[in-house]
Amino acid sequence: MFAYNPEKFASLYETELGQRIWAFLTEAENVARLETASQLGKPAVEGISTNFGRTCSPTGSSRWSATWFARFWNSATGSSIRPM
What are 5-18's pLDDT values in tens digits? Predict the structure, then answer.
């Protein structure tokens, strides 16, 4: 089991979505995908990007809506990003 201190993401971590994200990230297969991508010199997130959308997006789609993600990120962090 992984210990996690959510700090500024505490409000997200305590939600149902936050728990789905944490459960997804700590699955053994996904940890292996993250590590493998990193060892290949790629961003770790590339190893899980397709499955992450299916598991954690509100629509269950493997393609995240940039607009949805921007709204989600802004509400979770209080920052302001816009989709490109």
Answer: 888 888 888 888 88
